[in-house]
Task: structure prediction
Amino acid sequence: MSTLLKMENIQYEVDRKTILAIPSFSIQQGEIIGIMGPNGAGKSTLLKLLSLLDSPSEGQIFLKETVLSGQKITIDMRRKFAIALQQSLLLHTSVYQNVALGLKIRKLPKASINEKVGYWLDKFNISHLAKKHAYHLSGGEAQRVNLARAMVLEPEVLFLDEPFSALDFPTKVELLKELKEILNITNTTTVFVSHDLLEIKYLTDRLAILMNGEIQQVGKTEDVIEHPNKMTAAFINQWKEFIQ
Result:
């Protein structure tokens, strides 16, 4: 696989305090990579930098060979990415209108919008909810709409920031299965932030462990879980004991 997204010599500081220090980190075309670590490790900050929602204090971010950081972020750059958060943040309108919004902003023809929205409503098994108001949805239904709203944009990179953490276990398992199948079929490059090792183990190809603002270990998910290094062993083993 070729490198799609890359960070080099990244520093992120707030009030002269270093939040992230990442010499090098790369994401491969078509992979699903997990980012995991204790609370306050900088996971969401890392995702914000990668998705261009924030800018590093130092260093560069590349999409293939194009430098994204250190310059004015254009609409075309942002359109290469889509993000789904823990809170779905749906608009006060129908499911259909929520999923269609990004396409309308991009001024796609109505017929194309109808086709794309219909396709993704079907993929996430929410076609029957198209006319339902978003605020009348269950948590699982709202998260399906959230994911459909991201995938309908056909992003080069999909960012997921703990989208399953508020769901009950049966709903989480069902949606994880559906999403894994969709990501594998579409070959969508995905960055998945989670605090749950079960989610990470099921969904991801590679795993990066972030601690104290630094990536302490990265590799194939199973390798990192089964062979943690000295820096990550306590964190990983604590999770392994919990889920056994």
The chain has a mean pLDDT of 91. The CA atoms of residues 92 and 134 lie 6 Å apart.
